[in-house]
Amino acid sequence: MSNFIHFGCWNNLNKGCLLNVTNLLKDRLKDAAKQKIDFLTIAGDNYYPKKEKVGVKKNKIIIPSLLEEGFAHLPKEIPIYMILGNHDLETNTGGNNFFITDLNDQVEKDVCSIINYEQKSTIKNREIEYNLFKEMMLENGTLIIMIDTSMYSVDAYKYLPCYKEFLSKGSDYSVDELKTKQLELIKTAITKYKDDVKNLILIGHHPIIGLKEKDNKNANIQDIIEFDTVLKEIYSILSDDVTYFYLCADVHLYQEGEIGLKIDDKSTMKIKQYIVGTGGTDLDKCPNKSEMAGVTRNERLTYTMTRCEAKCGFLECINTSPVPEFLFNGVPTAGGKRKRRKTRKIKSKKSKRKSKRH
User: Fold this and answer.
1) Backbone angles phi, psi at 103, to 5 degrees
2) How many CB atoms lie within 10 A of CB 108?
3) Residue 246 Cα distances to 37, 110, 210, 307, 313, angstroms
4) Is the per-residue pLDDT at 341 higher than 50?
5) Mean per-residue pLDDT for 122-149?
6) d(CA 9, CA 253)
7) How many domains is the chain partitioned into structurally?
8) What is the pLDDT of residue 339?
């Protein structure tokens, strides 16, 4: 295996552009003139409920038929490696009320309905492998490690019921135990391939750091501050002997950036990051690059955005050369054609009025 396609934040048939993305994806898989695609990586947020505001609260309405239909649009001819996002781990705790419309009944507190329905949907596509952790060594010396990043967020403790549900009904991990277990798996994989790895591609749900526009201002995105310690552990084993890449989702746009993580006074870990939260849900706005092209936090972490597109689509990752090559395939945003038709109608009415005056 060598080449793959990556995206996340995708299964939303309430609105968004999922069908445009999956149609483009299927066309790409059939295109014999281009490099063969061997597998897909999907970086979480594998379903978006319908939202309804009721006073100050939001009802998140889970529609099992739409969730299942979204999974049915994924291809069935190549392996699909999927990890969790924060939305997959949500329950009806906090200020959110979850409903199952097919049953017309409110879900009990702490029921992990989203993850349960997702797991049922993956059974119908045997190519889907839904994991907390996955490692793959490719032919060109590229090691891929897919990990869970929600456990490094401040909300991790809220997700524990659904972690337990996902892993097994008998499991009972704390957040610290989850992080310790995952770090052990990462270090074991890296040590196993240390002599052969030339490139390391980490895949998680959350960006290490990023930018988006919020309330007409550029906002610094960093929800997994504790993930820095994992990156430092990785660097302590591999140092500068490999090229580092990080693929993720969570933010609903496409963004490339250069990350520098200060290890000590002499060393900085350099990571090329690709945010691909473009698989089929509502899009975020790109930041104003002229206002703030780089971000610095705690004098340790630096980020420079090099490209941003508010488009749906997927990232093509070609691994036939010594260093991986990445190409973003974007699709037109939903509603674009309707807007153009509306514009033509307005012009047509104006021209008719002009002709009547003459």
Assistant:
1) -100, -10
2) 10
3) 19, 32, 12, 15, 18
4) no
5) 95
6) 10
7) 1
8) 35
Instruction: Tell me the per-residue pLDDT of 67-79, one tens digit each, with 9 for 90 and over.
Output: 999 999 999 999 9
pLDDT value, residue 111: 80
Average pLDDT value for residue range 239-261:
96
97: left (phi over 0), alpha (psi -120 to 50) or beta: beta
pLDDT interval class at 337 (50, 70, 90): very low
CATH, residue 133: 3.60.21.10
Q: Which residues pair with 315 in a beta bridge?
A: 6, 328
Full domain range(s) for residue 196? 4-357
User: pLDDT: is 105 or 177 the higher one?
Assistant: 177
Cα–Cα distance list, 219 to 49, 103, 258, 310, 311 (Å)? 25, 40, 17, 15, 19
What's the number of CA atoms in the CB half-sphere (13 Å) around residue 132?
Answer: 18
Rg (CA), the chain: 22
Please check whether residue 146 is in contact with residue 79, taking contact to mean a CB–CB distance below 8 angstroms: no
Residues in the chain: 358
Strand partners, 219: 212
Dist. CA 329–CA 254, nearest whole Å: 10
